[in-house]
Amino acid sequence: MSSTERAAAGTADYLDQRTGVASAVKGFARKIFPDHWSFLLGEIALYSFVVLLISGVFLTMFFVPSMGLMEYEGPIASMNGQLMSEAFASTLDLSFEVPGGLLMRQIHHWSALLFMAAIVTHMMRVFFTGAFRKPRELNWMVGFILMILGLAAGFTGYSLPDDVLSGNGLRITDGVVKSIPLVGSYMSYMIFGGEFPGEHIIPRLFTLHILVVPALILALIGLHLLFVVLHKHTQYPGGGRTDKNVVGFPLFPVYVAKAGGFFFIVFGVLALMGGTMAINNVWNYGPYDPSPVSAGAQPDWYMLFLEGSLRLMPGQTEFVIAGYTLSLNVLIPAVVVPGLLFTFLAVYPFLEAAVTKDKREHHVLDRPRNVPVRTGLGVAFLAEFILLALAGSNDLIATHFDLSLNAITWVFRVGFFVLPVIAFWVTKRICLGLQRKDRELVLHGHETGRIVRFANGEYIEVHKPISDEERWLRVNYDAHRPLEIEPREDSRGVRRKGFRKDQALQALSRFFYEDRVEPVTPAELAAAHSHGDHDSLGSAEDSESALAIAGAPRDAAPAPDQQSDDHGHMS
Amino acid sequence: MSTHHTSSDITTTNPAGTPERFNDPGIPEHRSRMADRDPKAAKRAERQVVVLFVISILGTIGMLVAYFAIQPDGTTAGTRNSNLALGLGLFLSLMGIGLAAVHWAKTLMSDHERSEERHDQRSPDEVRVAAVTALKDGAEDSGIARRGVLKGAVVTALGLFPLTIAVPLIGSVGNDWDVSKFRHTMWKKGTRLATDPAGRPIKASDVTIGSVVHVVPDAPEEERRTHHWITEKAKSVVLIVRLDPADLKEAEDRKDWSYNGIVAYSKICTHVGCPVALYEQQTHHLLCPCHQSTFDVADGAKVVFGPAKRPLPQLPITVDDEGYLIAQDDFNEPVGPSYWERLK
């Protein structure tokens, strides 16, 4: 035994005697994780959060969260003598006078944008593959709350430099808060410690941004990952992958290297962005002053949808009722619309579970095409989100493409209602089409382009049968059916309690599963191979011969007569 | 095939001997990589990994050299150079490690897929029973069910104690909670209109037709350097425009609110409070750059497009003896965004 080995053994012994760590190492070291690029999206979110913590700690060493006014003295000549808050002045100092300060600030801002982008795309992956199904519904909720906290972290951090741009963002927040019935004015006072902007908001946001929100995010990330360990990771469908196993590579060494390396790659890319791409040059905007505002101002991307929502709402919807002002022109776009969007995200797993009545655990992911309505709803949601984000840039679209701002706004207003419906319908149709194509491929195999002429003059194209793996991928799914419910009255003619609720659930279930494409069964495949004679569908003989074809892997195309078929097998 | 057989949908019959579902073909056969078959390729991959780690080491050294060599000199260009050098050094330092580790894992570590069993999340029945028993026994031991007063006392005490933190916090967090301050601005009878940000009083004769001036109440220099001023300014900013009196449509009761075609409107948008700052001379339209509410200055600053509902509040103005523009009074309504008790 070498001396290093002896030292390692000694340390391990010391730790184990005090912590029993050996059983944890035994359990985790060779734990299996499945491999897929889309599993990296959540990792990017995690790693960009770590980068946020590292760069954020650096920034707190130099940032002064104070609204106390001071005269600027420093390297930016144009601002010398200008009155500004200490927050803004310290932002300039840490950017221009602390070596590496600007780099850390830019890395921090880029990481925040990437953090939200990774969260959103990770959520999309989870949504479209049905990874939120039992037993992971609670973890979906944890992830959803993390997304909201990410927005809160971004919002509170964005305003800290106390520049004109973020100050106007705060002012919009103040206007939105004031629109809330009954308590709006008091909530505005609560946030700003009196009238806007007051002298409390920056220190308050600072505490939220560096303490409360990150602590919550950290705790929930812990819970999120604990759930991942408890449930083990989901896996994409494929040969040998079932709901009872997990197929992949061991944590140590493969994922220690891959995932650990990926952290450095994410950090490296963010460093490159921070080093080469300027972001939020607050010295161009100037310190906050309630008077100026710049045209073409945009919030960070994840807030654009709220901005767009505010821009689209027509102003006619403000009412005065019994002397009290109800600002629906603000309340609907800033509170109701995002409320509905977020509620949809939060409750979707429970909604789908209710209309599916599926109590099994699912660990093999869905191919999005195999759940057309879910995929359609997801795309409709995204379409709405993107439309609102574009509406939040309608002034830039107008100036860049030389279009009428009013016309663009009207197009978006109509699109707000129409686009999700179209997106849903088109996506659902595409999914059903893809499923039919899968059936076609399973039943008839690949087209080869090889045309064969029979002695009797008949021409057919030879189809190459698909491999077992290819077939398995396309037939191994459940096409859920609409719910069946108990009749209104029981056998003695007594009206049943809860019938109406069941009926509503059934209607929803129909919406989900009325249109569906069933996977090919071995019997159908057998029939497809049985020389086009549909009457022989039930014949044991034929299906046996067809099964022989379906079973063993073959290299050469079978005889043409076994492959010829018409196209009448769609269910 | 689905397990729901109650549906009336026609499904294909299942001939004897045909299985219900296809068989799982199992984990695909492992394909060995170049480095698995050829020791030379493995050696090459190892060298590549080493080179990547070396790049990282050089990146770290480069970053440290840049830190000491390129001190920010205060100029924008100097800061940019320092930022670029530090950023590239950090990038190489991190990216080298990242790519090395991933390349190592992909080329040299075992890529044989393994399968591990999963177990249901649900606890076995006997564990569930034991858990329920444990809770029941504990509750029994505490006697909570039998001692009703005690239960009430515990719940009440625990329910009330958060008030000791919540009440002082909520009581103080909103300052004096006097929301009637929204109603008033610094404008009073006789307050001179001054330019923003210079603070020079404005002579009516200096305002030419078609011009637009950003205005604040005239105030001494010391006052304008306080926090109080920023909060008051947030309500008091005004925009004056001089129009050809022929273009100006004025309500009967506001005929004397303008002076010589000069009208003064609050600059705070009635939507959510952005400063309305973009004036279009040809159309007399005032556009809010935040959400594009558009107001017609020639017609009482009424909303012509966008999410705002109400016109911008008008500041009644006139001139004093020296010809300077002055306010006749404060605004006659709260400026800025709507709120519940705005009209009360």
Automatic annotation (TrEMBL), chain B:
Requisite cofactors: [2Fe-2S] cluster
Highest taxon listed in the record's lineage: Bacteria
InterPro entries, per database record: QcrA_N, Rieske_2Fe-2S, Rieske_2Fe-2S_sf, Rieske_Fe-S_prot, Rieske_Fe-S_prot_C
Extent of Basic and acidic residues compositional bias: 21-41
Keyword check for Calcium: no
A cellular-component GO term for this protein: plasma membrane
Annotated stretches, region: Disordered: 1-41
Membrane-spanning residues: 49-70, 82-105
Main location: membrane
Biased composition (Low complexity): 1-13
Keyword annotations of the record: 2Fe-2S, Cell membrane, Disulfide bond, Electron transport, Iron, Iron-sulfur, Membrane, Metal-binding, Oxidoreductase, Respiratory chain, Transmembrane, Transmembrane helix, Transport
Signal peptide boundaries: none
Rieske domain boundaries: 235-326
Membrane topology category: Multi-pass membrane protein
GO molecular function: 2 iron, 2 sulfur cluster binding; metal ion binding; monooxygenase activity; oxidoreductase activity, acting on paired donors, with incorporation or reduction of molecular oxygen
Compartment(s) where it occurs, according to its Swiss-Prot or TrEMBL record: Cell membrane
Coiled coil: none
Job of this protein: Iron-sulfur subunit of the cytochrome bc1 complex, an essential component of the respiratory electron transport chain required for ATP synthesis. The bc1 complex catalyzes the oxidation of menaquinol and the reduction of cytochrome c in the respiratory chain. The bc1 complex operates through a Q-cycle mechanism that couples electron transfer to generation of the proton gradient that drives ATP synthesis.
PANTHER family: CYTOCHROME B-C1 COMPLEX SUBUNIT RIESKE, MITOCHONDRIAL
Similarity annotation: Belongs to the Rieske iron-sulfur protein family.
Protein's name according to its UniProt entry: Cytochrome bc1 complex Rieske iron-sulfur subunit
Organism of derivation: Sanguibacter suaedae
